[in-house]
């Protein structure tokens, strides 16, 4: 196959531009170079950028890319933790991923909806008028996650869990004290869970054997060995942390309800399917997880471009969800675009693409949808509210976005 020159961004390093441009960084380069494949430099390293559907398919080709050593250290030390499923490849990854996927049965999803309703009712019973959507959903989802995973907790400790789990994803992109606080919380939470896993294994903690804490404590890897208590703790946090992170989607969902009131009317009058389209458009339109990282497994040529072994490669999730080649008027909020929409594994990728079982696609995608469905249902049908005057702005470089919506319960 013939060689083509990959467009290369000139300059020593573009990390500052990334911090400034945030979610637009990759799309800006795609537009500047008129190319969905380009090269730039970040944190002193040569990096390939990919935007688009075919490019996503390439990124998920296990023969071409690996996840080992791809996530930057600061992301591992806050968001992911070391030794978790995100950094595994091949057989080891599939084996561990199976564990995650086995947790996402219909029964689980139904239970999640019941827990969400119960916890929202509990919180709303103690709410006078003003409700901070982000904070409230963080509390609700923390309680849901702890119960679902079977983690024993004392009522008085719930607010500590809320703060700590929240810090693990809120401050990934920050530098300085906020980053260090997130690292401190990760170490603390991992240590506490490690001790719990050890007690479960030794039979010193009586836990529900149908719950995730028990499953992960007793899980054996592809070689038939228990996970180290630390890695078991990392994986339990891989369930707790993102469940609480769905509060970000709830926050932007309320922003959409305020900015597109006609959509709320549609959901009220047309029911479930309109609600479903609204949730999908919230996940497509608003930014959350900006891009994914992998490394080139062996040097290869794709569409004439050479990808060099070992080089870091980023797939733009936000840009692919706003790619005009896939989405008509991508910068319009339009839930009706999902009417007769044909789902494909690589065009709509807010939580990653490809196959759940084989690849790294988010195993929590169905669970995320259930958390959002039940929350939307409660606030559309059961809890009347108004929006007081507020900004609700989203900065392009605030990762994750922080509209911090407030509502008044009537
Ligand atoms: C707030 C909503 C969520 C978003 C935006 C999100 C996004 C993502 C993304 C982008 C990935 C990476 C996919 C890849 O590397 O190819 C991922 C992976 C993952 N997510 Fe989620 N996620 C969410 C909710 C959840 C939930 C609720 C859970 C579990 C309860 C979860 C558990 C995981 C795990 C364990 C992985 C690693 C999978 C692997 O490496 O094979 N996520 N998620």
Automatic annotation (TrEMBL):
Keyword annotations of the record: Heme, Iron, Metal-binding, Monooxygenase, Oxidoreductase
Pfam families tied to this protein: p450 (PF00067)
Top-level taxon in the UniProt lineage: Bacteria
Keyword Protein transport attributed: no
Protein family membership: Belongs to the cytochrome P450 family.
Protein name (database record): Cytochrome P450
InterPro entries (UniProt xref): Cyt_P450, Cyt_P450_E_grp-I, Cyt_P450_sf
Names of the cofactor(s): heme
Lineage: Bacteria, Bacillati, Bacillota, Bacilli, Bacillales
Matching SUPFAM superfamilies: Cytochrome P450
